[in-house]
Amino acid sequence: MMNLKEMSKRLKRDIPAVYLSLKSKETPVAAKLVGGIALIYALSPIDLIPDFIPILGYLDDMIILPLLIGLTIRCIPRETFQRFRMEAEEMWENGQPKKWFYAIPVAVLWLLIIRQILRVL
Fold first, then answer.
1. How many CB atoms lie within 10 A of CB 109?
2. Distance (Å, rounded) from C-alpha 28 to C-alpha 81?
3. HSE-up (13 A, CA, CB side) for residue 50
């Protein structure tokens, strides 16, 4: 069983594969719906738990968003997701993505994390 740190690393690594999967016609509508909800939630200025509540205000971004991304991955057929995971890994050959625009979801996620950290400080 993976610990939380390993799961976090894997989830971060899988975000480009999620993006590629959600663009595919073979991905079920349910996965696209959950993925859309995760994206809207990530980009929304409105939080389920207001950030001014000490500690609890940041749990929604640390728990709810990864859960939504994990649920999106579970809704994508395993074979489909594995294929896009390999495609996402191939994009980073020689340390640079072949198609840099696939890195946008990763950059957006990191910008959201940095925003949250800066709000704490």
1. 17
2. 12
3. 2
The pLDDT of residue 103 = 64
pLDDT grade for 121, boundaries at 50, 70 and 90: low
Residue with tokens 């690594």: 13
Closest to 77 measured CA to CA, from 37, 40, 19, 30: 30
Q: Tell me the pTM.
A: 0.65
User: C-alpha 63: how far from its chain's center?
Assistant: 12
Q: How far apart are CA 72 and CA 86, in angstroms?
A: 18
Cβ proximity of 100 and 18 under 8 Å: no
Query: How distant is the alpha carbon of residue 4 from its chain centre?
Result: 15
Q: Which residue has the tokens 């995971």?
A: 85
Q: Determine contact, residues 78/23, Cβ cutoff 8 Å.
A: no
Asked whether 19 and 90 are in contact (CB, 8 A), the reply is no
Average pLDDT of the segment spanning 34-45? 80
